[in-house]
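A.,

Following up on our hallway conversation. Structure tokens first:
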């Protein structure tokens, strides 16, 4: 049964965007702004509200998008959005895009099955999303030959940050993200739990609970894992002495570093380096001088 609103047939269809892979913009609109596309478009549409508010109608009613909200409209879903009457202004960033196939997981948003998905972020994640979307808009307009690829990369970054707050996969606490980035940038420093708790603005016990809940390991185990990963890279790709590497990844005692490294890898740092430097085994040639196969 067709439940289409008869009044909808009288509305003037808004112009459809013309682009190859991505198109973006930054609008500041007043009370008279609205868009109507009865059957949507064949691309995805992302709208992020910077200020004011918008009204977006989906298949099951309307929602208001305020500052910090990001709206995602799927292909062929109706486009029915406008400045919200209450503030009478709406400032937003937007992107029409045709995503690569491996983005599918990033586009599974709450409400999307009903035509309009929405995610809300704040704090540091909001700052990163907005920075990535501003780059998306600028790059989409760039005259560079590879501008669309740059713009898609920036949009993917925004979607990845938004995905950290998606209930589908379990939002990652912003304070945990802040501590993770601090650890990765300061591996040579003192990184005990009280220091990390101060970075996150948390008590040590609260930080430990959040790390276990979001990452599946304690802050101390995370720090050690990151230090060992960097140590492996330095052993593989540099000639730094083991004692220097130990210091560079945050262990002042080379012997203790070697103990932790052996416990993790089953090899001492020196043996690990020699393994990495050993030439790959090549089979003996067969009688015909080939590789001995067949």
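Then the amino acids I'd put at each of the 294 positions:
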């Amino acid at each position: 049964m067709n439940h289409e609103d008869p009044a909808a047939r009288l509305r003037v269809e808004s112009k459809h965007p013309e682009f190859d892979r991505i198109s973006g913009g930054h609008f500041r609109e007043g009370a008279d702004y609205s868009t109507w596309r009865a059957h949507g478009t064949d691309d995805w549409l992302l709208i992020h509200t910077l200020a004011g508010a918008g009204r977006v109608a989906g298949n099951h009613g309307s929602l208001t998008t305020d500052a910090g909200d990001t709206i995602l409209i799927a292909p062929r879903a109706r486009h029915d959005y406008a400045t919200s009457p209450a503030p009478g202004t709406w400032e937003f960033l937007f992107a029409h895009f045709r995503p690569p196939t491996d983005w599918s997981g990033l586009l599974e948003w709450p409400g999307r099955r009903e035509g309009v998905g929405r995610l809300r972020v704040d704090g540091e994640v909001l700052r990163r999303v907005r920075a990535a979307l501003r780059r998306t808009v600028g790059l989409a307009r760039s005259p560079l030959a590879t501008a669309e690829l740059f713009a898609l990369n920036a949009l993917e970054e925004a979607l990845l940050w938004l995905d950290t707050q998606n209930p589908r996969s379990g939002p990652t606490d912003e304070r945990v993200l802040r501590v993770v980035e601090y650890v990765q940038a300061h591996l040579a420093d003192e990184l005990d739990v009280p220091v990390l708790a101060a970075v996150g603005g948390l008590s040590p016990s609260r930080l430990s609970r959040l790390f276990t809940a979001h990452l599946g390991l304690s802050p101390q185990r995370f720090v050690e894992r990151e230090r060992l990963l960097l140590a492996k890279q330095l052993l593989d790709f540099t000639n730094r002495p083991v004692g220097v590497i130990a210091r560079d990844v945050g262990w002042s005692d080379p012997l203790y570093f070697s103990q932790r490294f052996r416990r993790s890898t089953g090899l001492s740092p020196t043996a690990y380096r020699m393994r990495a430097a050993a030439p790959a085994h090549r089979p003996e040639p067969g009688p015909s001088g080939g590789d001995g196969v067949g």
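The first strand starts at residue 22 and ends at 29. Curious whether your intuition agrees with the design.

B.
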